[in-house]
Specification:
alpha/beta, TIM Barrel, globular, 10 helices, eight-stranded parallel β-sheet
């Protein structure tokens, strides 16, 4: 099946549920992304700063670029002029830097707080208490060039669907509590970014509003190495 055919299948299934489909285009060449673009896809997710910067410069300007990988503070300045949404914000320090670079570019940058929901040591994210602490911090209240629009989480890499469902459900419960406590008057606080190719159906059942699907749309990825790249993330 072609990229257009794959996209049509996912768009019909995902977007009929009112969920945003993020096509994960990391390591995909520009011509492949253009195939998806020409099939109607506008939202793309990248893990590496340098790769996203290069692609944004060369591809159509109405693409919405989402940074879905772990972001280091010293790389924020490279994506601040154009990034649509930063998914993996896991510290107040990072938010402060995003705010600083957004102000320099006269923008307000939308962000998701990444929550640690997996039963694995390799995942990033804030625990429940840390999120509450961050949202109550005086320093956070002073940030005028960022907007928290929701939460993001990555489930444990397991075939146990019950465990995955529980992890996604816990994130939804946390989201609902934070919405009431901190963002009651903010209609923009509405996103839950969970679910990838293997578990997106469970994520949607548990309240996800954004799913990140890559290889199932584009096929196998080309592995790239950014070891010597100063922007590698």
């Amino acid at each position: 099946m072609s990229i257009a055919d794959n996209l049509k299948l996912y768009k019909n299934e995902v977007e009929s549920s009112g969920v945003t489909l993020i096509a994960v285009s990391k390591t995909q060449p520009n011509e492949t992304i253009l195939e998806a673009y020409n099939a109607g896809q506008r939202v793309f997710g990248e893990n590496h700063v340098q790769e996203m910067v290069d692609k944004q410069a060369e591809l159509p300007k109405d693409i919405e670029w989402h940074l879905i990988g772990h972001l280091q503070s010293n790389k924020v300045k490279y994506i601040a002029p154009f990034v649509t949404l930063i998914h993996g914000v896991d510290s107040l320090k990072l938010l402060v830097e995003i705010n600083k670079q957004a102000a320099k570019n006269k923008r307000i940058i939308d962000c998701l707080l990444q929550v640690y929901i997996a039963d694995e040591d390799t995942k990033f994210g804030l625990d429940f208490d840390e999120i509450i602490e961050l949202l109550r911090a005086e320093e956070f209240q002073e940030l005028k060039n960022i907007r928290i629009v929701g939460l993001m989480g990555i489930a444990t890499n397991t075939k146990n669907e019950k465990q995955i469902a529980v992890e996604f459900k816990e994130l939804k419960v946390l989201f609902d509590g934070i919405k009431v406590s901190f963002f009651r008057k903010e209609p923009s606080f509405k996103e839950i970014s969970t679910g990838m190719s293997a578990d997106y159906k469970i994520a949607i059942e548990q309240g996800s509003t954004m799913v990140r699907i890559g290889s199932s749309i584009f096929g196998k990825r080309t592995i790239k190495h950014f070891k010597n790249d100063p922007l590698a993330n």
